[in-house]
Amino acid sequence: MKVVPPSEGTIFKHVASKPRFQSVFTLECVEDMLYFDNPFHHHLWVFFILELHMATYHEVLNVPPPHSFLSTLWCLKSNHVGLGWWGSNKSCSASIPRFSKDWSAKRAFLDCRLWPEIVTAVEENIMAMAASNASDIKIFTGLQQIAESRHYKAWLLDQFGVLHDGKQPYPGAISTLENLASRGAKMVIISNSSRRASTTLDKLKSLGFDPSLFIGAITSGELTYQHLQRRDDPWFRVLGKTCIHMTWSDRGAISLEGLGLQVVENVEKAEFVLVHGTEALGLSSGDSVSKKLEELEKILEHCAAKGIPMVVANPDFVTVEARELRIMPGTLAASYEKLGGEVKWMGKPHEIIYKAAMAMAGVDASDSIAVGDSLHHDIKGANASGIESAFITCGIHASELGLGGFGEVADVSSVHALALKYDAYPSYVLPSFTW
Prior knowledge:
One of its GO terms (molecular function) is phosphatase activity. InterPro entries: HAD-like_sf, HAD-SF_hydro_IIA, HAD-SF_hydro_IIA_hyp3, HAD_sf. One of its GO terms (cellular component) is chloroplast. Pfam families: Hydrolase_6, Hydrolase_like. Helix content is about 35%, strand content about 15%. By secondary structure, the protein is α/β, with parallel strands linked by helices. The protein has two domains: about 10-135, no CATH class; about 135-435, Rossmann fold (3-Layer(aba) Sandwich), CATH 3.40.50. It has a seven-stranded parallel β-sheet, with helices on both faces. Strands 9, 10, 11, 12, 13, 14 and 17 form a seven-stranded mixed β-sheet that branches. Strands 1-2 form a two-stranded antiparallel ribbon. Strand 3 and strand 4 form a beta hairpin. It is globular and about 55 Å long. The protein starts with 11 loop residues before the first strand and ends in a 5-residue tail after the last strand.
């Protein structure tokens, strides 16, 4: 492959045989590039910057590397795709250079010209890699097959859509927990519930679960409470004390006792937005008043215009409740980001909650498995944390998979397509949390 040194003012240039790939990009048009209209836009960008240090990826794109990053490297290397790189005035190949975080000269840090045969190889290998990721998924009928095929020391269990539907346990869930406990499994509830961990365990007990089967619970609400109380994180340290509080009505409002916060109703007096629920607005008196989702969204428009940050204590978009999908705080947070607002996500799919769960169990990622019903939250979060995972299909994705009843087995091709859609790849797939 002929390698041409970089020309001044150019980040990289690739030459391709297919018209849709013929383009010159600079760092100023990263956003346009990420939404470039072809099915491989994101993966091509990953290829162009592959073998840079992971920190470089964060600095350039301001997003975490996709789960396919390392798989893409391996796939391209195993097919002998040639690469030529320039960075920090050094020439390198097949290595991971550590770049300085001083990006004052970022316009000239990299130039790579990919000739037609290389771009063709990229496209073919990306397709093969994606298909391989999906085809590696193992579909089982019960957890016994997983428990007997490999001994996981810790099981990180989602609750809604896996153990129960908010009203009652799913058939076989309690006996499955007992079977895992009898084999010495350390089980931790890892939930995006906006409530405290103790409240979550009390709720499980009221539904007929034995709390002693779990070594504990880590919830988004617990993490939020701890960070707001301790203020030992730089982001929370400067957050302020006055907030707009969005909470629950039918489910019961979330207590802020012990946090030293002042709830205000006037956006102009608020220093941040705290979102625990999607049904009500907290009042300065300590009570709350029911609000429609549209009314809460209108308030958020004013908050975004003022430029105050949001802490979301439940990143879920929807949850399963008595076989119905219910809107959750993550939906409000996603809308707030679209309005230009800053959001602190306190739960899955972010690593913060997985690290806390593994610390509680005293294990590392290699000895853990996460079980959940959300590809975006549970499975993608496990992927990002290096944890194997089991996807329960009877939860929030049941309708997308064309499932009509509990325990119905999903079509293999439908599971593969959904995994590709969400770029989230479970190690195992089960119709339900049964033995």
